[in-house]
Amino acid sequence: MSQPVSPINSPVRLQEVAQAAGVSAVTVSRCISNPDRVSRKTREHVLAIAAELGYIPNRQASSLASARTRVIGVVVPTSANPIHSMVMQGAADVLEPAGYQILLGHSHFSVDAECDLVRTFLGHRVDGILLTGKDHSPDCVDLLRRSGTPVVEMFDYNPEPLDMSVGSSNVDAGAALGRYLIGKGRRHLAFVGHIGLDDSRMADRLAGLRLATEEAGLDAPVAYEITATPGTGQGGEIIGTIIREHPQTDAVVFAGHYVAVGAIRHALDLHLDIPGRVAIAGFGDSIVSGWIRPGLTTIRFPVRETGMEAGRMLLARLAGKTPSGRVTRLGFEIISRESA
Amino acid sequence: MSQPVSPINSPVRLQEVAQAAGVSAVTVSRCISNPDRVSRKTREHVLAIAAELGYIPNRQASSLASARTRVIGVVVPTSANPIHSMVMQGAADVLEPAGYQILLGHSHFSVDAECDLVRTFLGHRVDGILLTGKDHSPDCVDLLRRSGTPVVEMFDYNPEPLDMSVGSSNVDAGAALGRYLIGKGRRHLAFVGHIGLDDSRMADRLAGLRLATEEAGLDAPVAYEITATPGTGQGGEIIGTIIREHPQTDAVVFAGHYVAVGAIRHALDLHLDIPGRVAIAGFGDSIVSGWIRPGLTTIRFPVRETGMEAGRMLLARLAGKTPSGRVTRLGFEIISRESA
DNA sequence: ACTCATTTGGAAAACGCTTTCCATTCTGAT
DNA sequence: ATCAGAATGGAAAGCGTTTTCCAAATGAGT
């Protein structure tokens, strides 16, 4: 009974493995995190003992000692929107196989909530941070700057990132969609954005559209704002209002594709000929857009690829490969279907 | 120059705050995590200094010392499927406001990958674990058992959980859908499941369906398996094969609703009258099911609520409130649309 | 003014690892 | 056999907190 009594559920520690293997704690540590520093024979013996004892290294302790956590903090607005969970998945596709874990936080489109999450992540001493969007609170920027933690801003093309960025330009996408519509003979565009969520992205898309109308010498697009819960497809009713208030409108661009699909449904109910009377287009893509009739013409962003590239950039930086400050610009694709 | 030189980017530490505030480190620690143990005056002074210095407590160190991390490990098969990211979001809805962070891992429907993730999470000494599904590798079960970490298994009704569980019964759902179809006069059912992913859930749904046919004295449903990438809606073509190989079939149940929607599209192309010639139904629901014509009759599970309840159960346990081992059974809803 | 109980703040010992030296023990070339 | 140099294992000093346990200071009751 001279065996030290361990508290219930107490996990086995490095020291105990060392004792059981007849080596010092240092050696056990090395077998696990620096295998080359130890002879094959010792290593195999120690690892066998460790496995037998069910040893699981305490990463709090190891992080504290080594100042690396192998954890990446990721902020997304919400996981309820497949777009964002897809970006997340993309990042995970790259990060998890590389041995990094993801600490996830939801900002609900609030820069203050984002800032709080960043603070929490820094408290966890994450090795890197992935942010969604290019708007951040001054406090947040300050926090990140002085921490020196590698950061990738995802989703929007951002030529002047905090640190690194990867994404597509919403202005360009808006302009491209505008030119496409104008090329199809449309002359009176309308734009429907959400309000309160994702504001700068909406603004960029509208700005792009406006660019296209200017180029063509047309009136600026009529802009509407709705308060749609994203992903629900509510808000499509506005198509009726637009046609009533601006009867000359011959193309409506929706900032979200769910709403756009909702609008197509409503247009059918209103016996509006799509695209004869009015064309409909949207941003973002999912199988819904392809399945509805008429199919929705829309801009597809490479969302999963965005996440993957963000992960890759972070890994490169963590491996010490990248010169500070790198921007990756991704494109987009116009998916041309029947609605426009 | 007797000031200790701190390395670049070195975050300020407890000790430095203490020095600046003219108190001991202990006092600073208490101001932050145990404010009542310190007088109001001291506390306010210390917190002001801490804020001024931009002090962010190191959670690795604090977790190591306190044996609590305020981190919950969550395993989902994939974030590419909105169903699972919705469960995640539900859990986050409850956990984040309570001051817990989510460490996320993707199992890709592999119990071995799940086991590895659990091991990693235990290494991080998470305060609790959320798992998807009721199937786990023996190693995983063993690991969790001996660690004593609170665990909630989500998604499936699981009367004999590892620890706690919350979800709906897929057998019941299958049976309910079967009875519904039989009640509508259908006599020859077919079932289409995916293979390789989510196997036990598929099996449960089929089992439920079979239960319904048995009750009614009908032939067991003809079962098909496809290898569909979830969420893409591929695989709907099989409706043609089924009708050819089993012409008497008058109802097809799809294990996934995306595939079911795909089948509706294909049926239209094949000029199969839905639901006249054959009824179509599915499991799971999203806006797609409601927007296609004919609308898809389907089973809706309370996914977000599942995640939220899982979060609540975990919090209750962590607050020491729950007697070990609790099961929450959630229901489901038959959404009756035109397709069946 | 004098106890006694109660706050309030501090010293020191964990928490479980990694890391930086150092001291051995092997190699194989002379 | 001898010796440099590499390979191998260990001792000790952190990493930045929290958590006892104590001492000093404060306040209430006589």
UniProtKB/TrEMBL annotation, chains A, B:
Q: Which UniProt keywords apply?
A: DNA-binding, Transcription, Transcription regulation
Tell me yes or no: is tRNA processing among this UniProt entry's keywords. Answer: no
Domain of life of the native organism: Bacteria
**Pfam families given in the database record:** LacI, Peripla_BP_3
Gene3D superfamilies per record? 3.40.50.2300, lambda repressor-like DNA-binding domains
Alphabetical list of CDD domains matching this protein: HTH_LacI, PBP1_GntR
PROSITE patterns membership: HTH_LACI_2
Can you give the residue ranges of the HTH lacI-type domain?
12-66
InterPro entries for this protein: HTH_LacI (IPR000843), LacI/GalR-like_sensor (IPR046335), Lambda_DNA-bd_dom_sf (IPR010982), Peripla_BP_I (IPR028082)
The GO terms describing molecular function are: DNA binding
What name is this protein filed under?
LacI family DNA-binding transcriptional regulator
